[in-house]
Amino acid sequence: MPTYATCLGFAYDSPTVEFPVRMGPGTTFDTAPFKIAKGTGNLEVLEVQPDSQNTASDLGRVYNWFKIKFPNSQIGWMRGHVIGISGDFSAFGYGNVATLVHEYTLTRNPASIPAAAAAPAANPMVQAEQTAQPANPMAQAAQAAQQPAAAQPEKKTDNSAKEAEKQAAVQAAASGQQVAASGTAPVLTGTWQPIRPAHPAKAKIKVSSAAKGRNDGTTVGTTVVTTIPRDTVVPVIGVKQENQGQKLRWLQVSYNGQNVWVREDFTTIEGDGETHGLQWDLYPAPMGEKRWWIRGVNRDPKKDTSIWDHSGWDLGAAVGEPVLCGPAGGVVAKVFDCPKCTPDKPSVMDHGLKVGDPSLFTDEGWGYGYGNYVIITYSNDKLPPSTKNFLAANGFPGGAFHVMYAHLQRRTVEAGQILTPNQQIGANGNSGNSEGPHVHLECRADFSDKFTRWGAIEKGFFDPVVLFQR
Predict the structure, then answer these.
(1) pLDDT tens digit sequence for 124-178
(2) Are the C-beta atoms of 29 and 421 separated by less than 8 Å?
């Protein structure tokens, strides 16, 4: 029989009346594109798990997270400090709760859960693969290395310990083992299941300052009607394709009582835009809300000859801003530490060279222009459904995507490492052929998820728009 909870909100006076839903039991997981209002009941509880990062409240108790089926049939996770429960919660370790109270006021005893109910359900976003014990010793060692230790408060380590950990990871990677980052949750594999947004498409302005709103969807012969500040969210009411220049797509949006057009690449889409041909299930951008849009792809067959060639996206952010992998994890195919990119002089400009100098693209010392980079492989089962369909329709049925994250300040992963969802893989930087801090994001498809060489999969190049939200 289903067990239901209620969103009670905070137990103290607070103006917050809507609360986020996560794609897993912790704040490191992506947020769902909808929130739950204070007072919402009929929240069917499917599972309870401790925080994936052992995050504790001010009282020193590790938070519990509730996997919930919401009244609209969508599924996600909410932290117990805003959840109220009452009734028979024995199946989740709380016993029989006489009156509706905040979960955090109760003591949960997992040992009391009946055996039939103790087996956890699959993660809502990443279904665990039902695989047999690996037969070869190396796979067994990799699997054992990724088992989490008993839940304990996070401890600070000195620099020598961190260096020893890094050296161990390097050695493991060199021997072909798969290594897990210190303190990460167990590796989750399988199909990613994005939650369909509950509200119509909205556009969030992601340029560094403001986007121009025009009276038509092109820059040729149009008038700038208004400017829309960064991070403003506006409803999308129309979409059109431009047939000039870079042949960009434009969004008609409503802002301050006016219907105006903005370039799609100056925005990120929130909500369900499928009726406008806008995909809702894509990976989030690899950096958080502090990022901004710089430039997109410019190459044949839609090449604008008035500007330089460009084979990916450039997303700007401050130096050191975390760079994350996709929401279903992945495998580190390759890492490269640029020999000429020193900490004090990471960019070619710091060495008196000109950005775009042809000699940089044949110089391994500069990473062929990419500077410090990480390449992540996303197997087909980890891709959004719309991306799988795109690959199948464009000659790569069942194919994988290999994604380069370039110009990093530093990396935080090793080659061969299996990544957890949304794990940090590096920090934003300005290394190599770069004139300012940014991540260059470049995507290439292949029939195989076994990475060989970046140049060997050049024919699989696609605009990142088929995999990522801006």
Answers:
(1) 333 333 333 333 333 333 333 333 333 333 333 344 444 444 443 333 333 333 3
(2) yes
Q: Using an 8 Å Cβ cutoff, are 442 and 335 in contact?
A: no
Task: With CA atoms as reference, report the closest residue to 10 among 19, 1, 23.
Answer: 19
Q: Is the pTM of this model over 0.90?
A: no
DSSP state, 4?
E
Furthest CA-CA distance within the chain: 74
Region 360-389 average pLDDT: 93
> What's the token pair of residue 293?
């849009």
Whole-angstrom distance between the N-terminal and C-terminal Cα of the chain?
Answer: 42
The Cα-based distances of 317 to 152, 286, 408 in angstroms read 34, 11, 11
The mean pLDDT value for 68-86 works out to 90
Domains (ranges, CATH) in the chain? 4-118 (no CATH), 202-276 (2.30.30.40), 292-466 (2.70.70.10)
Query: In 69-158, which ranges are continuous DSSP H helix?
Result: 115-118, 137-145
Check residue 308 and give its pLDDT.
54
CA distances to 49, 88, 118, 165 from 414, in Å: 29, 47, 35, 12
Q: Is 395 left (phi over 0), alpha (psi -120 to 50) or beta?
A: left
**Spatial contact of 217 and 243, defined as CB atoms under 8 Å apart:** no
* Cα dist from 11 to 35, 63, 251, 289, whole Å: 18, 15, 42, 28
- Chain-centroid distance of CA 160 in Å reads 31
Report CA-CA distances (Å) from 107 to 72, 79, 291, 460.
30, 15, 40, 53
Which two structure tokens, joined as six digits, stand for 280? 């809702």
CB-based contact 313:265 (threshold 8 Å): no
In which band, very low, low, confident or very high, does the pLDDT at 28 lie, cut at 50, 70 and 90? Answer: confident
Residue 117 sits at the vertex; the CA angle it makes with 114 and 120, to the nearest 5 degrees, is 130
* DSSP letter, residue 218: S
